[in-house]
Design a protein that fits this description.
single chain; alpha/beta; Purple Acid Phosphatase, chain A, domain 2; 2 domains; 6-stranded mixed beta sheet
Length: 496
């Protein structure tokens, strides 16, 4: 009898402790954390007469949205997207389908996976801004075998759906494509350049496009970093947004920060519903992650190499924002000149520990919004939905940096008098219509071709030792008329 009671107590004790922890977590208010220097962030705001030139919406990890009602984060973001319109871009930061990406047609979970993708893509209907989606580790079959097939399958499905529904016509949406690491570069406005990376390519433990046999623009880690810096160097005068799924800084599980609940119910970190108490032995999993045993966590050597490679580049520039998902929370960091955003709580939340080098952390659903102003300032706002997402609350706002605004360029007017360096000749005497030919046929070609015209000597084209005047009409483009070379006709594009 005593043995039986002892056995019951052994079973019930961890269960009681576990459910007590669950109760505490349910009752706890998940308040935002602000570092000491931004406690009064609400008083810091852009000047009222400062016009927003461009807006970038950043939302990640929306791979399991509410399918009965629109996911609140998506609903709030969609409202703001349509208010801004064409002068904006929206970027999904990966983990677009939980838990293993998009399966093959006919699989039991194919239908629900499509519904989860469609719920995100439908937000873009009628939206006039730029639209992009990048992959995350879950989109690569949860970083498992056959990840290439999964991510390419998702890419093809997304592009086909957007085209068939008339949401996106032409251009790239799912970037970087074909399971390549990038960097994918696009100028989304006059002053904002987007660079997309597939960070899972760097961390993926199985087959990936790599080395000499790869069709990717960058096929090794070193090659990726060199090409990334080349792009950044080229756009020093612009605002640069680098997007990838994996963050460089985090105070969440992927950074090695766990709760007591994670030690008692470690399987809930894999699936929300697996509340199997594993006291003592359950600590093995969080400790393994904390000390570098999992590829998807910052302490892992390969992940650390990714961070060091990027920071070595970013430290040289003052115009870069790096935005990622992966962690199911909102976080903001400033590291030297780099602004670092974590926006991975599009449809779910997870523990994030306050403090450290973070300026702001919040375990709450939401998204981030970059704003680029006319006076050269860049700001970020973090938003969380209220209720069903019809309304929302801004939970943090801060300036990032200020660049010299683009000067308005007036028309270039050349008032130089070329009278002393101009000769008047016909382009070609053979084109001049005379006598009976003129009477019967009229002018066979535009009059300017056979009429005398002025050609400034400084306007002569010089290529490979020959020199010929360029007709005035060509000066409206940056192209060199091939007809300037004897015996040829056509137009050569200008070399830049």
């Amino acid at each position: 009898m005593k043995n039986r009671l002892h056995l019951i107590s052994v079973i019930l004790r961890p269960l009681a402790v576990g459910f007590f922890l669950i109760l505490l977590q349910a009752c706890a208010t998940k308040k935002p954390y602000y570092s000491r220097d931004v406690l009064n962030w609400e008083q810091n705001e852009p000047k009222p007469d400062n016009k927003v030139n461009y807006t970038v919406f950043l939302i990640g990890d929306v791979g399991a949205p509410d399918l009965k009602e629109q996911e609140p984060s998506l609903k709030l973001m969609q409202k703001q997207m349509n208010e801004v319109g064409a002068q904006s871009a929206t970027i999904f930061l990966g983990d677009n389908v939980y838990h293993n990406g998009l399966p093959e047609p006919g699989r039991y979970d194919r239908e629900v996976s499509e519904q989860r993708l469609n719920a995100q893509l439908d937000v873009l209907r009628g939206y006039k801004g730029e639209k992009y989606m990048i992959p995350g580790n879950h989109d690569w079959n949860h970083s498992g075998r056959g990840g290439i097939e999964y991510v390419v399958r998702q890419q093809n499905y997304v592009n086909e759906y957007l085209t068939e529904e008339g949401i996106v016509v032409g251009g790239d949406f799912y970037v970087p494509g074909d399971a390549c690491p990038g960097p994918y570069e696009v100028k989304i406005s006059d002053d904002v350049v987007l660079i997309a990376l597939d960070s899972e390519w760097w961390l993926h433990p199985w087959e990936r496009p790599y080395g000499a046999g790869s069709n990717c623009w960058a096929s090794t880690e070193a090659d990726l970093l060199v090409k990334l810096e080349d792009i950044i160097e080229k756009h020093q005068g612009s605002n640069i947004v680098v997007v990838a799924h994996h963050p460089l800084f985090t105070r969440g599980n992927h950074g090695g920060f766990f709760t007591l609940k994670d030690h008692v119910f470690p399987l809930t970190m894999l699936r929300d519903w697996i509340y199997l108490p594993l006291p003592v032995i359950g600590s093995i999993y969080p400790f393994a992650r904390k000390y570098g045993g999992i590829l998807q966590d910052i302490p892992h050597p390969r992940y650390t190499a990714y961070i060091e490679g990027l920071l070595n580049i970013f430290d040289k520039y003052d115009n870069i924002v790096y935005a990622a998902g992966h962690e199911h929370s909102l976080q903001h960091y400033k590291y030297n000149n780099l602004t670092h955003i974590v926006s991975g709580s599009g449809c779910k939340t997870q523990h994030v520990k306050p403090g450290g080098t973070a300026m702001y952390t919040h375990e709450v659903k939401g998204f981030a919004k970059l704003l680029y102003y006319e006076n050269g300032e860049a700001w970020v706002e973090y938003w969380t939905p209220v209720g069903d997402g019809s309304e929302g609350t801004m939970t943090f706002r801060t300036p990032l940096y200020a660049k010299e605004p683009r000067r308005k360029r007036g028309a270039v007017v050349d008032e130089t008098n070329y009278a002393d360096s101009t000769i008047v000749v016909a382009a070609n005497d053979d084109y001049i219509a005379r006598g009976l030919r003129r009477t019967l046929l009229g002018e066979p070609l535009p009059p300017r071709m056979g009429h005398p015209r002025g050609s400034a000597t400084v306007g002569y084209a010089q290529r490979n030792g020959w020199s010929h005047p360029i007709p005035e009409g060509w000066r409206q483009t940056d192209s060199l008329p091939e007809s300037a070379q004897p015996g040829c006709s056509g137009v050569y594009p200008a070399h830049r």
